[in-house]
Amino acid sequence: xxxxxxxxxxxREVAEIVRTAETxxxxxxxxxxxxxxxxxxxxxxxxxxYLNKIDYEDNLDIVNDNVEAGNGETGIDDASKNSxxxxxxxxxxxxxxxxxxxxxxxxxxxxxxxEEEVIETITTVWLKKxxxxxxxxxxxxxxxxxxxxEGNMALLMRLNQWCGTPDCSDAEKNFKExxxxxxxxxxxxxxxYISEWDSEKQHENSLIGKISLVHEALKYxxxxxxxxxxxxxxxxxxxxxxxxxxxxKEFIEKES
Length: 256
Description:
mainly alpha; 12 helices
């Protein structure tokens, strides 16, 4: 497989495309985004299975619908509990087969031995746990659906890394250690997403603030001087560079 960062970025972008597409995408269309990557048949199947599992996010706008909330056992926030699609997802995973510790440990051993086919089963075993972990971050205002998706993605990446990896042999003997390491991987994936999401929001808010500042500065200087200010005058007043002001002015004029 190609390097992890590139793969994760592409998978995230394709997941967003699948989620927002007006019509279901064919497997051929989905895999076209991964055409430059050296993927085995098993890895391709995992990607398709993973992307098919996010169909429940087709319309996130209904998160705020006034639907009766679930039982609250997942720890997710009220707005997300009111999402029809999320409730349907929770109902689906509540019906999944349960596995004993011994059965799951056997799956881990097969994973370390290089059996790709068990990855799908292990991700299914972890679906409820991913929701629980995502629920720990409910107060950070990101949508629960997105946190769950990122957690599932981080889990999939870690399992792929471990498949057939000899240096996992020590962990192979310790069920608790394996579970803790997987949970940490899921948490890191969610935290990385929140950090990125927060940075984007801050940038968005910063840009909105600058647009508002320039808009008000233009009005003030025009009223003060009786003419449209020059770029240099606007720069002196707002302390923004001429290059940045040019872009913002173009945006304001375009939106007017």
